[in-house]
Amino acid sequence: MHAVVTQPKKQALPNSSPGPADRVFGWRQVDPATGKAYGLDINDIGWIMEKQPQDPGTEDAPPRLVVSSVRYFAIMHEANMGMHAGTGKKTIFAFWGLVAVLSCSGSLLPAQPRPEGALSLTAAVKGPNQINLTWPAVSNSVDGYLVEIQSDADSRYSSYTELQPIPRAGGYTCNASVQRNGGSCNISDPSGAHVYNPPTNGIPYWVTEPTYIDPQDGSPAQFIAWGLKPNTSYNFRVRSYSGNTFGSYSVVATATTANYAVRYVSPKGKDSNDGTGPDSAHAWLTLAHGSSTIRCGQELIVMAGSYANDDITMGQSCTAGNKAIVMVNPSDIAVMTSSRSTNEGPIILRGNYVVVDGITSLSSTADPGGSFDAVIYGNHDALLNVNISPAVIPSFLQSGVQINGDHTLIYRSYLHDYGSPDATQNPGGNGGFVLVLPSAASSNNVIWSNHLTRGGHDVSLCLGGCSNNRWLNNIMDGGWGMAWEAVYTGAQDNLVEGNFVKDVGQLITAYKPAFEVSQGPNTLRRNVVVNSKGVALEVSALFANTAVTGSLIYNNVFYSPGSCYFQSHNQGVAAYDGVVFANNICYKFKGDATAIYLPNRTNQIMYNDILSVDNNGRPQPDRATIIWNQDGGGSYGYPQPLAYADTKYNPPFSHNKGLDVNPQFVDEVRLDFHLKRESRLIGAGTAIKDSLWGSTAGKIDLGAYGIGQISSIR
Question: What is this structure's pTM?
Fold first, then answer.
């Protein structure tokens, strides 16, 4: 027990959530059960004792004390304290005044430090529609950053407004009248239960690392502001956050977007007009005419409305400082509703340094060979804030976006609903592709902060030769096919980082891992996979002359999957040399943890939390879940406990037993997989050497948020 000595002053606590000023000049803690805020002025010293709901398996954990410079928290576990009968809600007791806090052990745990503000902020103009922000990392540990924008000349942002880094996704309804293979689709999710929309506008702390660049010119970028008005001044500010605690704001950075010559297209215009104004007497009529007519250093503003049987085709060869841009008029919605019979979609970028910003495409095709709705052949091009999907779900003759070029940026876009979830219409889940990088020409591209939703086969596919690309902080969800797959020779040296994956395979019968690494080396780190119906990770050299050699899978969270890790026997033992699976958390899986067929001793499966639970949520650390060298027969063909694997299968297994504990996530219900400060997994990880994408540095925790920083990348 803890002894607490205090001289309390009776004082009412506030009953409503504080505003931004309160968060800067005082301390406020929001109770998620009630939505009420409790706090104190920065001049006061006080403490709060908070009863917390108990996680299974931690009933005997000792109470803990938390101390900071302006407050003392005594946060105690449930032992011998009780709850409001049957409610499961927190009870909070607050006392104000001078506090002395003692514990029997004499030890105190420091409180979560109040996040610092970003020390500086720079805004760099990248065109008439785009400003990139950069700032240094704060010196203490934070969850991430929030970005705000303001402009006196843009009514959308007349006051400071948080920018939303990832577009929201919605549900869908299958059209049962669409027939394929004698079947129809009756599998729908109209409410979007299988998508994930983040509860905040936060961006993760690691965006300050050298991995984050704008490939259009190779410059660093922590955040990209899209859809801005030309020749317009904007103010930006950034602050860090940790949980419900906020750092002070950065200095304000001001920049004015480029003053490109502007042309207009409108459903009320004519292509015989001069395009110099938005009215019917000046605007062009078609996107096809406008997008092909503008020159480098010009921007085509697309006015609101529907553009039927139209397309955007851009072949301009421009430069980073003098682009050709097609952008929807700010605050407007412009929709392409094309129906075509050719094998190329309504968006075709053949040029260099060309940009499409804000367009919505709802197209269909009758081409029997299939086609993509957007194809990028050029280099240093960009799709910003676009919404691309078929006109009808299900679809069979079209796919989403194909990148055949290099140094392309796909940012803050919503790409969704290709293929069918129905097993008769889409046998084996072999059709339906949201985003494809198909060849050696597909290199050095950045796919960042997008919502990739519902592909019958997958939502992101890297085929032979696809290399040196970055999938950064995307959401991949919807309940259909895989999140990401690399397959065929040369699909290697890619980084898959910070992606949130939800419900892979939940609406379909086909086998679908969340991630499939079928060529290497590739790096997967800082990803969160939630509720994958099958295995969270497959590592398989599927085809002749392929290998996954040197692939690194570290610091990920695999939460409630069917199983953790499958490794096949295709192409023999050497095809799997040097694969690392480390610092991961695979928790609440339903089947076996691993199914590994070959006895490769060069693998490292180490420092992982691998823990199943029973139907009542109780941990089962001694359950036999590890299969290794299944092809060896005999005892190898049966699951063994983790302790056995660490002893008898060492290498590759080591240092896993003892870490198979409840990870103590901050909030599993709200899918917050940061570790609580009392988690035994903090500091329990191991350093990883990653020569491609930066090695870990400093203290290493387990899980997606366990890498404090990485070293410089190539």
Answer: 0.85
